[in-house]
Design a protein that fits this description.
alpha+beta, 5 strands, about 70 residues, two-stranded antiparallel ribbon, 3-stranded antiparallel β-sheet
Length: about 70
């Protein structure tokens, strides 16, 4: 909805928590999604954000993933 080109697992879980559906281990949930066929999300390369101590993985939702998400709305 917000037209992100990419999103991190932190961003996903932050938004889920705001609507009351936070996940205990977001990484394992995302790893399960990455294994699905057809691909719903893809893993982009990791990068260090300026001033960040942690490297955050970046993900991109595929067109098939957008179709599935829209079907839930």
């Amino acid at each position: 909805k917000q037209k992100f080109a990419e999103i991190s697992s932190y961003d996903i879980n932050f938004r889920l928590k705001r609507i009351g559906h936070g996940v205990q281990n977001i990484s394992s949930s995302i790893n399960a999604i990455l294994k699905r066929k057809p691909a719903i999300m893809t893993l982009l390369d990791s990068r260090d954000d300026k001033g960040e101590k942690l490297t955050r993985k970046r993900y991109q939702v595929t067109p098939e993933g957008l179709k599935i998400a829209r079907s839930f709305l």
